[in-house]
Specification:
heterodimer, A: about 120 residues, mainly beta, seven-stranded mixed beta sheet, four-stranded antiparallel beta sheet, B: about 120 residues, six-stranded mixed beta sheet, 12 strands, about 0% helix
Chain lengths: ~120, ~120
């Protein structure tokens, strides 16, 4: 299994500012994933963060808006830049554990971001 | 690309009764994983049950079981003896066996268990 600590759990930010969300895993993992979950909606993948290489972004998400760092195999950050009210969402990091069976995705507890 | 469809935005069930949540998916992969995750109001994503596509036997976990129909690309979740603590959002999810291991989620079904 994997235990993920995600910080902050919530924040209220002014538009135009940036927020960096941290994700710490208690074991080494190759890939970490960042998701956005708008209120009452499903999880949408923002990007995949691999250690030692640039993150891979999904369609509709760009590095200038959501820069990601992955300095080592247990840690990643997601920054939400130049925020607007439309960025108000829950942001979750995730890792895949259990090489071989049983495989499972583990999630942080999420960051609830409100932009005012 | 893989897509996951949950056609029931909301469902309700009486405590102790049985409810089935539907999920269909589309993929050209032959080997993959399917999951049901539960998200209570605490926001924490909790694995309910997983199914490996290469296994014909339907997965079961206590009161939770799935009906996996690979040819029909269908993966429904049955909750027996529903409990108040089962009230949550339920997400069906797909993950390839090889290559990109990111999960693709359905839109979710909000389940309410009524006393």
């Amino acid at each position: 299994s994997a235990v993920i600590s995600q910080k902050p759990s919530r924040d209220i930010c002014q538009r135009g500012t940036s927020l960096t969300i941290q994700c710490q895993v208690d074991s080494q993992v190759t890939m970490m994933f960042w998701y956005r979950q708008q209120p009452g909606q499903s999880l949408t993948l923002i990007a995949t963060a691999n250690q030692g290489s640039e993150a891979t972004y999904e369609s509709g998400f760009v590095i200038d808006k959501f820069p990601i760092s992955r300095p080592n195999l247990t840690f990643s950050t997601l920054t939400v830049s130049n925020m607007s009210p439309e960025d108000s969402s829950i942001y979750l990091c995730s890792v895949i554990g259990g090489t071989g069976a049983p495989i499972e995705a583990f999630f942080g507890q999420g960051t609830r971001l409100t932009v005012v | 690309a893989q897509t996951v469809t949950q056609s029931q935005p909301e469902m309700s069930v009486q405590e102790a009764e049985t409810v089935t949540l539907s999920c269909t998916y589309d993929t050209s992969e032959s080997n993959y994983y399917l999951f049901w995750y539960k998200q209570p109001p605490s926001r924490q994503m909790i694995l309910v049950i997983r199914q490996e596509a290469y296994k014909q036997q339907n997965a079961t976990e206590n009161r939770f079981s799935v009906n996996f129909q690979k040819a029909a690309k269908s993966f429904s979740l049955k909750i027996s003896d529903s409990q108040l603590g089962d009230t949550a959002m339920y997400f069906c999810a797909f993950m390839k066996l090889w290559g990109d291991n990111d999960m693709r989620f359905g839109a979710g079904t909000r389940l309410t268990v009524k006393p």
